[in-house]
Amino acid sequence: MFKISRRMFIAGAAGAALAAPTLATAADWPQRPVTVIVPQAAGNSPDVLCRIITDKLSRALGQQFIVENRPGAANVVGMQAAARATNDGYTFVFATSAALVTNPYTIKNLSYDPLKDFVPVAMVARSHHILLVNPDVKANSLAELIALEKADPGSLSIAVDGPRNISGLIAQAINKQAGTKMALVPYNTISNAVQDSISGRTPVTIQSASVVEAFIKDGSLRPIAVAGKERIATLPNVPAIAETLKNMELQGWFMIMAPAGTPDAIVETMSKAVAKAIAEPDVLERAPTLGFEMEKGENVAPAGAKKFLAAQHAYTGQVLKDLGIEPN
């Protein structure tokens, strides 16, 4: 029988160790370019925000952070690619709230699990959606809009980007809580939705702040509420929907995620670099023009982001259940 000597064993083990790929540690990471997948088309607001952040990361960490757009199938294409990526600290994903907490309840047999296939790195921003009306609508607040609709049920229609997208979900939640019957009119293109609201054809709409900023300024559309629990800096006199309707927290947001199993030390290093990047004055100044408010506080750290994600996952699931929305 062939016997392996101690010397041969040690030599073989040493050779295997040299041949094996080395996992990066926080001390030497990154040693090569890092990919950040964006499950959105190039040029839209989330893509622009991600590129602003990755530019900061490239400068701070000494390696290029490359944005890779993987749009399609309601974020599924990009999220699936990120879930299947090697968890070595060289692939991240700039995930939307839709990808993380809406898709699990609206898409049957979803090809990724946002809670199991990823680890949160940092929550980076919230997106602002605004409830607006045509100037001829005799309502200056959400409460007045509700009263107006109830006086003539079904008389108002609201332009949204689809019944399962953020504006459509907000509209349905308003109808559910307020007992109104505003008819949802889904649009394939945002520009058509906005133009129909300006013309009065669809007199109410919910749109991203960046899309309607100019129309608010010139008086073509009147803002009466903002999505979420808090007012926003760019429209301080416009109440949050939650000021009128309780527990209305539906809002868009963005989180940087890593494939599950990515070394904790790398996740922490990345999170700290992101936190520094999104707190820089030029980023804070640019974000509102894109319709975003940069996140701050505990949600920017991995533990806080994980807690926030779990809470939003449960909350969104309950909202969709209450609305009777099931996966298809």
TrEMBL record:
Record flagged with keyword RNA-binding: no
Statement: the UniProt record of this protein carries the keyword Translocase: no
Signal peptide per UniProt: 1-19
Annotated keywords: Receptor, Signal
PANTHER family, alphabetized: BLR1237 PROTEIN (PTHR42928:SF5), TRICARBOXYLATE-BINDING PROTEIN (PTHR42928)
Family: Belongs to the UPF0065 (bug) family.
This protein's name: Tripartite-type tricarboxylate transporter receptor subunit TctC
The species this protein was found in: Rhizobium rhizoryzae
